[in-house]
Amino acid sequence: MDNSQLNDLEKENYRNQENKTDINNTHNVTGYSLPVCIRRMLNEGVTFNQRVACFRIAVHLKRVGLPYDAVIAILTNWRLKNHPKENKGIITASETEEQVGCAFKKSYTGYGCSEPIFESFLRPQVSSHFEKQVVTAFE
Questions:
Q1: pLDDT tens digits along 34-49
Q2: How far apart are CA 75 and CA 59, in angstroms?
Q3: Measured between alpha carbons, how far is 43 from 121 in angstroms, rounded to an integer?
Q4: What is this structure's pTM?
Q5: How far apart are CA 82 and CA 78, in angstroms?
Q6: How many CB atoms lie within 10 A of CB 100?
């Protein structure tokens, strides 16, 4: 399953579910969609905390109803988008599988985007040079 199929799944779930907020009110959930920080991590990869990110993404993908094999496939592809700093290696396929296995062992409800390690994934994504100048001018 690629990102466009995942986005289609999100759109379908949005149409079929009412807006909800999680129990701890740590992030808004629209039906069974993924929080913004999780979508951004999936789309962009990460530069730090790869194993933590992998586990948390897996928890959310499980929460939206994806089976174990699909989550393994998505995160095996996702890991190649990572660009770890300080000459660290990219999370391996076996480490990815281990993190997904841990996520599927228990009934985790998901993590919000309010934790400090996810703050950078909440900022608006700036796609063009002009927009970067506008955002910088108003900061």
A1: 888 899 999 999 998 8
A2: 11
A3: 11
A4: 0.65
A5: 7
A6: 25
**Nearest of 33, 31, 35 to residue 7 by alpha carbon:** 33
Which residues does residue 20 pair with via DSSP β-bridges, in sequence order?
29
What is the C-alpha to C-alpha distance for residues 128 and 135, in angstroms, rounded to an integer? 11
Indicate the helix (H) or strand (E) that contains 137: helix 129-137
Through-space distance between the first and last CA atoms of the chain, rounded to whole angstroms: 38
Dist CA 132 CA 89 (whole Å): 30
pLDDT, tens digit, 9 for 90 and up, residues 56-102: 999 999 999 999 999 999 999 999 999 999 889 999 999 999 999 99
Cα Rg, the chain, nearest whole Å: 16
Instruction: Name the helix (H) or strand (E) containing 30.
Output: strand 28-30
